[in-house]
Amino acid sequence: MWDEHRQSDAAQHSGARARTEAHLRAFRAHWEACRKGQDVPKRTDIDPRRIEPLLSNAFIAERIAPGVVRLRIAGMHLSDLMGMEVRGMPLCSFIAPAARKSFALHLVDLFDRPATLRLGLHSGAGLGRPALSGTMLLLPLRSDLGDVSRALGCLVTHGHIGRPARRFTIDSAQVQPLTEPTHPAPFSVIAGTGTALRVDPRDRPNLRLVT
Question: Is beta strand 148-158 parallel, antiparallel or unpaired with respect to 132-142?
Fold first, then answer.
């Protein structure tokens, strides 16, 4: 009987992850469609209706300095993770202090190359805090002035949040520089402690959120 319960839990867990991956693919596919032959789409081209399954996980971030971004708009899931309203907070608030230097370097790539960024995240267990795994996807956007200083992002987690605030280490990272529009390549899991796999492009086949 216990084996049957474990098998059922494993099947549910696997199904939830598969649904999340499908939603992430659709999230990025909308961003790709908004590029309209350009390298980076405009912030105003993002349609919340096209990313509805992940609206509570989505956010718009603004670059305020190299390696530093703050949240302009954020879904409820981010507030649940932090235990407070997160609009106006630095995005690095969700990252463990030891991993913030690496995170800042990835953000420089995001805006300066520009590039897309996907991070595999982990938050260890503690008192009242079950272990959490997660994925952060960051996609560059142009502001109303035309500069690449905004990002469409999404933070999804697996597991119970428990007692906030939850902060994450970086288990894996992938930075994909942009050239011309392309279908998103599958993101492989890169083991490590935040070291990014930078993919050579030659080798690769108005947001309203609930706050």
Answer: antiparallel
